[in-house]
Design goal:
Layout (H helix, E strand, L loop, with lengths): L1 E5 L5 E6 L11 H13 L62 H17 L3 E4 L9 H10 L6 E5 L7 H7 L5 E5 L5 H5 L3 E5 H9 L14
Length: 222
């Protein structure tokens, strides 16, 4: 598969050959769904709690007199029948574990298959030299317009903090743009955004890096 490569100004700058077989050859919807659910579940903190009557900071005074109003009898505003009152069945758990897991090779296959999904839908913008001379939001917005990215996008930047500094500062306030490190691309972030924007060198490194080890060989990061 020949993937078009663009310059920062949006002009064609050649192509990048990507082996479809190494990405799974066909879309494995079941694997992608399992990986997406796992990544999503692992983002949950599991620390939700609610307050009962004793924990609310309301006055304990009776809100109106017991008789003569024609209304129902009420005590203070902490009652669970009142708006903003305490919960009758309070959530008291301090930590609930929603963590899910998948074998490392399955995660890697899902991540690579998600990339194949984006490539087949023409939703990947490979840039020949993704860098900015200065940190300006206006320049980053113009860059997205030049490469025809008009929906939610995941921008994968170099793991070198100094190299990606200007791009990171330029993009952090742009609506609909999510940033990540190129060596930490995963299925959840790719599928959760319409476009993927990545530097050519970073994509080649990701394809040839630990994520490519989906067979019997073991080693590298997730």
């Amino acid at each position: 598969m020949d993937v078009p490569v663009y310059s920062m100004s949006g002009k064609a700058a050649g192509t990048l050959s990507v082996d479809e077989i190494s990405l799974g050859e066909t879309i494995n919807a079941d694997l992608l769904k399992q990986a997406f659910v796992m990544y999503h579940a692992n983002r949950r903190q599991g620390s939700a709690r609610s307050k009962n009557r004793a924990l609310l900071a309301y006055s304990r005074a009776k809100i109106y007199k017991q008789k003569g109003t024609g209304r129902a009898r009420h005590g203070d505003k902490k009652s669970n029948t009142m708006r903003g009152g305490g919960h009758a069945h309070q959530k008291t758990r301090t930590r609930e574990d929603y963590h899910q897991d998948m074998p490392k090779k399955m995660r890697r296959k899902a991540n690579r298959n998600a990339l194949l999904c984006k490539l087949l839908d023409n939703e990947v913008r490979v840039i020949d030299g993704l860098s900015f001379d200065s940190a300006r939001t206006k320049d980053f917005v113009a860059f997205l317009e030049a490469i025809k990215v008009d929906r939610a996008s995941l921008v994968a930047l170099s793991g070198d903090a100094e190299k990606s500094k200007n791009a990171r500062l330029s993009a952090r306030n742009v609506d609909g743009v999510q940033l990540c490190r190129a060596d930490q691309l995963n299925a959840f972030e790719m599928l959760n955004n319409r476009f993927l924007v990545i530097d050519k060198a970073d994509l080649e490194a990701w394809l040839a890096g630990p994520s490519s080890q989906t067979g019997k060989s073991v080693g590298g990061a997730k």
